[in-house]
Amino acid sequence: MILVTTNGYSTLEFLSDIELFFSDELSDKKIILKDDDFIHCTRVFRYKAGDKVFVTDGKGKIYHCEISSIHKNELEALILSYTEQEIKYPNFHFCIPILKNKDRFRFAFEKLIELGITNIIIYKADRAVSEKFNVDKYKKIAVETIKQSLQANLPVIKSIGTITELNSYEGNKIIFEQNAEIKFDKNIIDESDINYFIFGPEGGLTEREIKSLRNHKKYSLAENRLRTETAIIKAASVLTL
Known about the structure:
Helix content: 10-25%
CATH class of the largest domain: Alpha Beta
Number of strands: 13
Number of domains: 2
């Protein structure tokens, strides 16, 4: 819920009842909507001057605003109030490989964000496609996903080379592997520690990759073999739901 003040009266509105827009152009009193959000606001929803809208900056705040003026390619809105959302899982880092199937990769990426994961590391696995990861494209997808899921925190998206680079990151390294002896459980994880959850591509991580990662632990997610995107979503669900 969000606290909204209008004409001196405060009311609670459920976030599930709102349409959320995004803008990174704001001051203490004003927000500007441009590009797709401007078009969506004025042409799809046909909001006019004087109408109330909700806008997130992707940095933890959702603003309740009133449209003050509409121009050819942008609109201005006055900030009436705002609410803040905490990052629920600041120490969870999901390390996922580029997958051959782009649709499955995007599906897993979006579901991580919907479940509140705000640290995503993309790496190139030995058995994955040798395709460059388009960070800018997925930042745009992340914006659309937080708007759809009514969240205020954009994830931090990093693209690295191979899994070996994770050795330079401080924190627990957790590999998910079908044949691991210990089944994964949320109670295993200390949320106050920095944790890196590492997923292999189809066919799994190679022996070389596993050996190259120092001080790691291995866990299984299920008795049956899971697709990479299924394993990613299951692990995120176990940790967050």
